[in-house]
Amino acid sequence: MIQQVVLASSNPGKLKEFQQLLAGVGFEVLPQSHFQVTDAEETGLSFVENAILKARNACLATGLPALADDSGIEVDYLNGQPGIYSARYSGTQATNESNNAKLLEALKGVPSENRGARYQCVLVFMRHSEDPTPLICQGSWEGSILEAPAGDGGFGYDPLFFVPEHNCAAAELSKDEKGRISHRAKALKALLAQLQ
């Protein structure tokens, strides 16, 4: 039996990724926009808190189980920034391009050995809005920040995120390869193990 799950996100890139990754294991992932759910206010101070807020909001609005992802990039030189503010790093009208430009500006002149970074992803699966024990899974992906964008795949900070084991930017990886090694793939693998 196929289980419907609401994805508590309006991000088309995330939706596509989750639909691909969960299709084979009995889940139909529906975007919250399908139910006219408005985005939850991300008032948490951690990826975990924000993911729980988003999942609970989607459960409340739809009555269905919900999956929420809160993810971002942490740059060592910037003490973990942009972190939970990754999506709106360059302001409320932020775009991928404006966020990437601000990050490059913040790291101007910083040598490559000090540009270490990682993508973080926290996934929360809630069976219902009052779920006292939501499933929480985390994945991280180590790399560093390039001095200029490379590649045109992926989304977010992918053109700036250097993946050492492939010697290229995340935006230069194939969809399949990114879907195998990314922070989200790792968190999802952990979630699937718990769901099964």
Can you walk through the features of this model?
With 196 residues, the chain is an alpha+beta fold. Helix content is 30%, strand content 25%. It has five helices and eight strands. The chain has helices spanning 12-23, 47-62, 96-106, 175-181, 183-195; strands at residues 3-7, 27-31, 66-75, 81-82, 116-126, 135-145, 161-163, 168-169. Strands 1, 2, 3, 4, 5, 6, 7 and 8 form an eight-stranded mixed β-sheet that branches. Strand 5 and strand 6 (135-145) form a beta hairpin. Helix 4 (175-181) packs across helix 5 (183-195). The protein is globular.
Keywords:
single chain; 30% helix; 196 residues; eight-stranded mixed sheet; 5 helices; alpha+beta
Task: Chart the SSEs and their pairings.
Layout: E1 3-7, H1 12-23, E2 27-31, H2 47-62, E3 66-75, E4 81-82, H3 96-106, E5 116-126, E6 135-145, E7 161-163, E8 168-169, H4 175-181, H5 183-195
Parallel strand pairs: 1-2, 1-3
Antiparallel strand pairs: 3-4, 3-5, 5-6, 6-7, 7-8
Helix pairs in contact: 4-5
| Rounded average pLDDT | 93
Number of alpha- plus pi-helical segments: 5
The SS-based structural class is: alpha+beta
Instruction: Tell me the total number of β-strands.
Output: 8
Quote the beta fraction.
25-35%
